[in-house]
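To whoever is covering the structure queue this week,

Two jobs came back overnight. Logging them here so there's a record in the thread.

Job A:
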Amino acid sequence: MQRVVYCLLLLVAVPSWAGSIWIEGEDASEKDVTKHGWYDAVKKEGMSGKEWLSHYDANKPGTATYKFDSAEAGDFTFWWRGNTFSKVSYVLNGAEAVEIDMADKRGDYMISEKPDHRFLAWIKVGKVALKQGANTITFKIHGDIANSGGMDCFLFDNTGFIPTGANKPGAAGTAETVAGPDQAIWIEGEDATTKDVTKHGWYDAVHKDGLSGKEWLSHYDAGKPGTASYKFEVVKPDDYVFWWRGNTFSKVSYQLNKGAAVEIDFADKRGEFMLSDKPDHRFLAWIKVGTVKLPKGENTITFKIHGDISNSGGIDCFCFTRVPFVPSGVNKPSTTGETKGGPGDWFPVVFDNDTFSEKSITDMSKFIPAPAGKLGFLNRSGEHLQF
């Protein structure tokens, strides 16, 4: 095992592109990490710069500090790429330490020869404020597996760029813009117009860092169901896909614009995870409720939370969208621009029900005669197969 302690008081040279700051993990200004022969022996061809900063030492966490310049002050989206089997916190410009939530992984893949805990993925850390001029960020790599971890690169961006693989801004990638009010309507569960719920100390004491807005609307009362109504404006009348995020161990029905009550079917859960410290019935997941018609102007939806476990339940958020959208964590509906990526480039894929579009790059329908079976059975003819 080789212990590495460097103190290089240099300003990191970082590539930038119209509001983007890209920093390589191996370009730390100061670092105190232990490079371990086995842990560092990974496939590096898919990394930015073909290298990373790694640490493996059961006796201490690893630290790495980066100094960089920002051409402007303001809010930037912070992206980080590294091993998500580790625990990593960061301190930006002397503020409080923040633990990176590794739940929302993008492009996760194995970088070891055989399955173990050496993986690489992008994480959308969130919004951070950068100063104009000099900035400093320090990462601490720690965790249960010998404090092991690795950082390939990280990025601060205010252009809407979504990283894919090792593609930097200006190369392959997509520009993301939050969907407008005529495209999607996002409503927080805690923002009910009227509500009749019982907030229970134990039931409501959950991990809220993964909730949209860091809060939810919860109910726990064996004596009565909970209800919550929401008024919202619709700019563009149309058919909208209705997504709901909450505790799927409860029973929830909804009534839209004085229509009939509809029970939400929780069979198709997306991104379910446990909210409590120990396993119980407090979980969170996205549900694709279905398609609903929304008229222009004011609309109202009322939820009833009921069920066998003290009528308990919780609503994090819900949304109506008329643009393609599949929820992932707390990411809101967005529209993306064209990409310049080629066949060898990585890009994010979020699965939903297949529309079998003829425009899909994986569509093979043009090679299959219709109707199926038109040419009879496929037979062997020497070295070939033919109808």
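Job B:
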Amino acid sequence: MDTEENVRLAKRGDEGAAEAVLTEFSRMVTALAHNYADYGDEQDMVQVGLIAVANAIKDYDDRKGAKFFTYAYMCAERRMIDEARKNSRRIKTVAFENVPEPQYDGGMAERLIAEELLQKISGALSEFELKALMLTTQDLSYAEAALRLETTAKAVDNAVSRARKKIRALA
């Protein structure tokens, strides 16, 4: 049986047909989940994607002209994107992982070291990377930082990733 027929049967309650569709789509969902592994456990993303495909079976309407594969793919991808966004808000981004918090107890040497370190970091980053890094270390999500920078959350994510890489190279 083809996918479209299995979907029609699954919509009528045929669990075997629903299982066949999920099995058929498991490889696609696994490949898609690999793209979002940086935002959560890859197996969790696979589960999110398979649940989205199961929901797509229930919601699919072949009269709208889209193939089930296209509809299911979009549902799975969008659900994984939502999950990735939710996970990125939960994980507090710490850009200066190996840099201790400067303690200004009046010591001139400590102040100079901290200022020198901040100058090195600022000099290594582009203006956009620095702004994105500063906003995300102030407990703003990538989406909130993107609004302030008038860009996309993905651009902020990329800038923070580049900034982290450059900071690690300075150490």
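Note for Job B: Residues 89 and 141 are 6 Å apart (CA to CA).

Please reply-all if you pick these up so we don't duplicate work.
Q.
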